[in-house]
Amino acid sequence: MYANQSILIGYSGHGFVVAEAALEAGIDIVGYADRTIPENNPFGLTYIGVESNEGFEGWKMDVSFMLGIGDNALREKIARLVVNHNKKLLAVISKAASVSKTAKIGDGTFINRNVSVNAFAEIGNNVILNTGCIVEHECVLGDTVHIAPGAVLAGNVTVGERTFVGANAVVRQGIYIGKDVVIGAGSVIINDVPDGMKIVGNPGKYI
Ligand SMILES: CC(=O)SCCNC(=O)CCNC(=O)[C@H](O)C(C)(C)COP(=O)(O)OP(=O)(O)OC[C@H]1O[C@@H](n2cnc3c(N)ncnc32)[C@H](O)[C@@H]1OP(=O)(O)O
Fold first, then answer.
1. Can the keyword Transferase be found in this entry's annotation (predicted)?
2. For residues 74 and 172, what is the distance between their CA atoms, to the nearest angstrom?
3. Is the CB of 19 inside a 6 Å radius of any atom of ligand 1?
4. Of 82, 90, 106, 194, which has fewest CB within 10 angstroms of its CB?
5. Ligand 1 centre distance from Cα of residue 186 (Å)
């Protein structure tokens, strides 16, 4: 079994946020992996190496892994690398988030401060629920979705994999959003959105 020890992959920007939440939640971060060593190491973490390099030390350690990567495509790629090494991806849930006991949370998912996840919501793997977003009852989110700060998904919304919902966007109840969709900041989505579309404004229009 894995101890409560974990390696963070990606240690800048979003990675800093994940690191802070993980430390507050009592996770022991044994180090970080990244392609570069950042000048700024705000949590004094130990550098382990580059996860994609041959002989990466982290794969030999009895630890889980956390995803500190904001970009959906890259996060999906790195998550696959971790799983292919038979390692566990840890879900990181901020102590300041409010998550229903009836909700399902996938591996490798990050839930930031002031997020609300309501009854029977199902959150996939490697998802980011960013600061203060609201995921209402029975929403279903695919893998590697990112719900940006302050966005609101009303009840029974479905979001396909790798879709990005911009900051402060609002999605009406029961709406189906496909995969690889980009929803602009502040948009209001009142109709279903097919795969691969980019949509902005109130009401949402395709661009
Ligand atoms: C912790 C964090 O920081 S998480 C990240 C949070 N960040 C966000 O939520 C930002 C989300 N991104 C956006 O809203 C972006 O504007 C996108 C992705 C929707 C569009 O970006 P781009 O593809 O570069 O489009 P671009 O900026 O060229 O705009 C294209 C048109 O759409 C309009 N537009 C772009 N974004 C929006 C928006 N959010 N709402 C309304 N209209 C918009 C532009 O005004 C422009 O209109 P025009 O052609 O009439 O001039």
1. yes
2. 29
3. no
4. 194
5. 9
pLDDT tens column, 94-132:
999 999 999 999 999 999 999 999 999 999 999 999 999
- Dihedral Cα 52, 110, 179, 50, nearest 10 deg: -10
**Residue 141 near residue 122 (C-beta atoms within 8 A):** yes
Q: Which of 147, 193, 207 to mutate to test the pocket of ligand 1 (most atoms within 8 A of CB)?
A: 207
Cβ–ligand 1 contact at 188 (below 6 Å): no
What is the arithmetic mean of pLDDT over 37-62? 94
CA distance 9 to 13: 12
Unique residue bearing structure tokens 């998912």: 109
Question: 128-129 and 146-147: which strand pairing?
Answer: parallel
Query: What's the CA gap between 15 and 70, in Å, rounded?
Result: 8
Q: Would the pTM count as exceeding 0.80?
A: yes
Distance 201 CA to ligand 1 centre (A): 9
